[in-house]
Amino acid sequence: MTEPRSADPLAGCRRGPEYFRFLERDGADWDAWWDVLRGRVAGAIFRGALTPDVCASICRNFWNSPLLASPARAVRSADRVVGPVLVSAASLDAYLDDCERTRPEIAAISDVPGRSLPALLDDCRAHLAKRDVELRLAEHGGRQAAPYKLRSRADSESFGLRPHDDTPHGWPTPRLADFEALRIKRVCNALACFENGAGGELVYWNAAPGPEERRTLGMPPGNYGYPLEALTGLEKITLEIRPGDVYVFDGGHVHAVAPSGERDVRRTTAVWMTGPLDDRTVLQWA
Questions:
Q1: I need a surface site. Which of 152, 247, 263, 271 has the fewest CB within 10 A?
Q2: Which domains are delineated in the chain?
């Protein structure tokens, strides 16, 4: 077996074609969701899981929210966020304070007439319960994480969101070290798209770097954004994202959001993380 070349530090963290693919369904398919959580396939997307009326109502509530934040709480000055931002929180307690402060407004924005996001997640919870699996919010000291945050991202120089992964070994520890979410077996990203201009695709590379690969690339915990030259030549999936789509994928693979090329683009989503803590528990947090 050929050893990975030092010039190709991500050569040893690729997956085969049976795993590296996205299942695509019309409407929600919780069996496919479960396949992603269990590590059987990289991702799944559910087209039109939310209706246009639901998406329009959520967008209207989001852009009129008194908690709409920039840049004090957002990672970038062009972002708009309602909800907690874990990676930029000063401490775990500060994050949980933010979860509690924003929880009522998150509910007010997303709980709209029709089969909205809370109802969709209730369906997911019921489906997992039939498998004797509990879906619950991540906790710390008896306090609960937020179920999701609502966010609109503008474009950066070359991406809407730079190539990165979302695994705990890339998190800014030790200030988050006691959070039970760091103990999950697999981190999965989940999103619901409410509005998206031209472009804005999910770009997903066949590389799931571990701590050793990150060190080789000069990326200690808390460092954000993979150098593009390290991704050159890697197999990738470019997935069109449309309003109403809900999707989940293995957050350990490097991924990015393609730019839209529009001025003042509105790319509004609900974003959360999820994954199995053990054989009977799936956690969710924002």
A1: 263
A2: 11-285 (2.60.120)
